[in-house]
Specification:
alpha+beta; Immunoglobulin-like; 2 domains; four-stranded antiparallel sheet; four-stranded mixed sheet; 8 strands; 25% helix; elongated
Length: 146
């Protein structure tokens, strides 16, 4: 009889109080949720970042004495072979690139397109790329030929 009473005492808890295993599970669940939440913010930026333009020829807002034969863009990530574009547009809205943009086989961060004959004036370069990690990026800038 005494044995039953001691078991009953150990398993009996006051109304409204959670058992120790229940409290541990709630605490552990809260910690796990917090770690997962913070993990999203503490991920390395390279994983979340899109490809960025790091250099170009001609450069943004550059004023050139003579017309370039091509436009070259360099990015901080390697590019897919497909789904990339460079458009070069004059002040009348006419496209002056000849052919399609292509990724340089020796440097997969470099995208280039050949240009036709450019007259003096301002030109807009619009680009769109797809990096190897699947993230698209786009941008634009102008340059001027004297």
């Amino acid at each position: 009889m005494e044995r039953r009473r001691s078991i009953a005492k150990r398993t009996h808890r006051a109304p409204g109080r959670a058992s120790v295993p229940s409290l541990c599970m709630k605490w552990l669940g809260g910690v796990l949720c917090g770690v997962l939440f913070l993990g999203g913010f503490l991920s390395p930026p390279e994983v979340l970042a899109h490809a960025k333009l790091i250099r170009s020829q001609p450069g943004p807002f550059e004023v050139l004495d003579s017309a370039p034969a091509e436009v070259q863009l360099w990015f901080n990530e390697r590019l897919e072979d497909e789904f990339n574009a460079i458009e070069v547009i004059d002040s009348t809205g006419r496209h002056v690139e000849t052919g399609s943009a292509h990724v340089n086989r020796k440097d997969r961060t470099n995208l280039l397109v050949r240009l036709g004959n450019l007259s003096p004036g301002s030109y807009v370069i619009r680009w769109r790329i797809l990096s190897l990690d699947g993230h698209p990026a786009r941008g634009r800038f102008i340059f001027t030929v004297k």
